């Protein structure tokens, strides 16, 4: 995360003011991609002209604070265009996610893709990943409506402060 996101998290400000949607555990990259496609489509429809940023999110790794870079919606849709592009986009460091957010910080989308067979000793053969998404209730409802009902059993919906509190190394 960048410094502004950390400050907003500590103060309980948007995007950490409301809810965080996530996955109970890692899922196959093909399922992760389908979920991310739905989320990105909703976000792109709602905020087509928003200036978007990406940064290395080290929050679960060592809480290192990094800067961000401007990205286009085309960049995000390219990442999820197929399973191979999503896999190729993985960060490469353990527990480091990619974070995407607009200039107005109304939402935060993060994902991680593991190396192939990274957790094979735990039964995760192949390519797996996870995501989380924080936003206001209206946008969260639009995101949830875009996802098929059969995904409900793998999704979590927590308060953003509780969700990130469980992941902090300093709590």
Question: How is this structure best described in words?
Answer:
Strands 1, 2, 3, 4, 5, 6, 7 and 8 form an 8-stranded antiparallel beta sheet that branches. It contains 6 helices and 8 strands. It starts with a helix and ends with a helix. The chain has one domain (3-167). A hairpin with a 4-residue loop joins strand 5 and strand 6. The protein has helices spanning 3-11, 29-46, 73-79, 83-88, 137-146, 160-167, and strands at residues 19-23, 27-28, 52-57, 69-71, 97-102, 107-113, 128-135, 155-159. It has 171 residues and is α+β, with helices and mostly antiparallel strands. The mean pLDDT is 88. Helices cover 34% and strands 25% of the residues.
SSE order and pairing:
Elements: H1 3-11, E1 19-23, E2 27-28, H2 29-46, E3 52-57, E4 69-71, H3 73-79, H4 83-88, E5 97-102, E6 107-113, E7 128-135, H5 137-146, E8 155-159, H6 160-167
Antiparallel strand pairs: 1-7, 1-8, 2-7, 3-4, 3-5, 5-6, 6-7
Q: The biggest beta sheet, please? A: 8 strands, antiparallel
Q: Work out the count of structural domains.
A: 1
Q: What is the strand tally?
A: 8
Report the principal-axis shape: globular
Binned, the helix content reads 25-40%
Radius of gyration: 15 Å
Structural class of the secondary elements?
Answer: alpha+beta
Mean pLDDT: 88
Percent of residues in beta strands?
Answer: 15-25%
Question: What is the helix tally?
Answer: 6
The arrangement of helices and strands along the chain is HEEHEEHHEEEHEH
């Amino acid at each position: 995360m960048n410094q502004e996101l950390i400050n907003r998290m500590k103060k309980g400000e948007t995007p950490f003011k409301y809810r965080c949607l996530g996955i109970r555990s890692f899922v196959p990259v093909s399922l992760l991609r389908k979920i991310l496609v739905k989320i990105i489509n909703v976000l792109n429809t709602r905020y087509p002209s928003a200036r978007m940023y990406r940064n290395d999110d080290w929050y679960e790794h060592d809480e290192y604070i990094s800067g961000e870079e401007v990205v286009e919606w085309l960049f995000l849709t390219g990442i999820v265009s197929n399973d191979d592009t999503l896999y190729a986009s993985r960060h490469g460091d353990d527990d480091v996610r990619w974070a995407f957010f607009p200039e107005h910080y109304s939402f935060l989308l993060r994902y991680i893709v593991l190396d192939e067979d990274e957790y094979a000793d735990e039964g995760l053969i192949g390519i797996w990943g996870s995501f989380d998404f924080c936003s206001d209730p209206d946008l969260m409802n639009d995101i949830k409506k875009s996802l098929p009902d059969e995904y409900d059993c793998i999704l979590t919906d927590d308060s953003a402060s509780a969700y990130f509190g469980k992941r902090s190394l300093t709590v």
